Amino acid sequence: TGGGAFELGGHIQNGSYPYATQMHYSGMTWSKEQVRWGQDATGMINNAHANGFKLQLSALGAASQVTQPGFSEQYAAWVAGMAAAGADAIEVWNEPNLTREWQAGQISPQAYTTFLCTSYNAIKAANPNTAVISAAPAPTGFFGGCGVNGCDDQPWMEGLWNAGAANCLDYIGAHFNSGATAPSATIGHPASPTSTHHSWFFMPQTQLYWNIFQGTRQ
Fold it and tell me: Parallel, antiparallel, or unpaired: how do β-strands 28-36 and 146-147 relate?
């Protein structure tokens, strides 16, 4: 892990920990939960800590909100409140390279970087110990680059790097959605047996993001 400690966690729902004992037994020290725009996450944070877990919050809203005047500042104040309440990590939005999560026609790694940096500064001012994670893009090669209806994750990550996003995040967010092969596999995914596209495979995707950010962020 490049000299850092690997920490394991599980995604939970509704602030509930019915399997806390099993989570701890398996070595988990983190939990993750999604929180929607305007929701008060204080109870989630306190409940996670009471059950012996650090909490990562994935904070998101509606795709249509991101282009509304003043929303980035409102969002930044919202996530700063989570940091002040003791959130251990905050992922700023979710899969913003898709129209499901970001306004169609406005998908842009540069625009997201500006959004991320506004939140980063607010979070760190509220609690410098809260880790900031960039929104994980959806891993895909569907769009053939970046366009009005979406952006492949490789040019998306390259756009973040070129826009200076490394200055506004502690960790690079990543979603691996195609787990049907060994982590080290580079070919042979059952959905596309001859493809070697990184989005099908864990290590190629992880290495791609790491290399784009030149090893400066995990």
Answer: unpaired
Q: DSSP assignment of 39-80, as one string?
A: ---HHHHHHHHHTT-EEEEEEE--GGGGGSTTHHHHHHHHHH
pLDDT above 70 (res 4): no
Per-residue pLDDT tens digits for 32-42? 999 999 999 99
pTM as predicted: 0.95
Q: Do 33 and 42 form a contact (C-beta atoms < 8 A)? A: no
User: Which pLDDT tens digit goes with each residue over 74-87?
Assistant: 999 999 999 999 99
Could you please report the per-residue DSSP string of the chain? -TTSPP-EEEE-STT--TTHHHHHHTTEEEEEEEEETT---HHHHHHHHHTT-EEEEEEE--GGGGGSTTHHHHHHHHHHHHHHTT-SEEEESS-TTBTTTS-TT---HHHHHHHHHHHHHHHHHH-TTSEEEEPPPPP--TTSSEETTEE-HHHHHHHHHHTTGGGG-SB---------S-TT--S-BTTBTT---GGG-HHHHHHHHHHHTTTS--
Distance between CA atoms of residues 62 and 52, nearest Å: 31
Select from 167, 70, 69 the least CA-distant residue to 121. 167
Q: How many whole angstroms separate alpha carbon 3 and alpha carbon 188?
A: 31
- Burial of residue 56 (CB within 10 Å: 0-12, 13-18, 19+) is buried
Query: How long, in residues, is the chain?
Result: 218
Q: Name the amino acid, one letter, at 83.
A: A
